Amino acid sequence: MGMNMVLLKELPPEETKVLTLNLLKTMDPNDIQNEKSRGQIILEATYKPFKEEDMEKESVDGVDEVQKAPDNTPAGGGLLFVVVHEAQDLEGKHHTNPYAKIIFKGEEKKTKV
Predict the structure, then answer these.
(1) Per-chain mean pLDDT for the chain
(2) CA dist., res. 23 & res. 37, Å (int)
(3) Which of 16, 54, 56, 111 has its CA 20 to 30 A from that of 97?
(4) 8-36 pLDDT per residue, tens
(5) 61's torsion region: left (phi>0), alpha (psi -120 to 50) or beta?
(6) Each residue of 43-61: pLDDT tens digit?
(7) Is the dihedral of CA 84, 101, 7, 75 positive or negative?
C-alpha cells in the first residue's frame, strides 16, 4: 500500500508520541508518485534508552561491574515500542489482508492482519 519512516532521533526519550503518517509510494521526497494519496497509518512510538543504573550489575571480588550487553546491541541502545492503531483512507477497494511491517536496524517485524 505504502511506506513511511520515523527517525529515532525525532522520538523524545521516554515519551510516547502518537503519529499520523501519510503512506508514500517511495521514500524519495521528489518522486511524483508520492503526490497521490495512498492513505494514512496511525501509530504510537516510544523509545526508552538504556540507562546505566537500569542494567544488572554483578559483584566480582567486591567490585560492581555492569554485565556485557547482548551481541548486536547498539552502543547507547534501548527499547523501541511501536503500537499500530489503524490505517485510514487506503488506496483501492479491497483490502482483505492488510498488515504493517516495521523495520528497525535491519530487523523486520510484521503485525497481525
Answers:
(1) 81
(2) 8
(3) 16
(4) 888 899 999 999 999 999 888 889 998 88
(5) left
(6) 999 999 887 665 555 555 6
(7) positive
What is d(CA 99, CA 46) in angstroms, rounded to the nearest whole number?
20
Separation between Cα atoms, residue 53 and residue 45, nearest integer Å: 23
* Digit-coded pLDDT (tens) for 46-105: 999 887 665 555 555 655 555 555 555 555 678 889 999 998 888 777 766 778 888 887
**What type of residue is 65?**
E
Kindly report the CA angle at 105 between 39 and 32, in degrees rounded to 5?
Answer: 35
Query: Which residue type occupies 108?
Result: E
Cell 546491541 belongs to which residue?
73
Contacts 24+ apart (CB under 8 A), 24-33: 27/3
- Residue 75: the pLDDT is 59
3-class secondary-structure state, position 13: coil
Q: Is 99 in a helix, a strand, or coil?
A: coil
pTM over 0.90: no
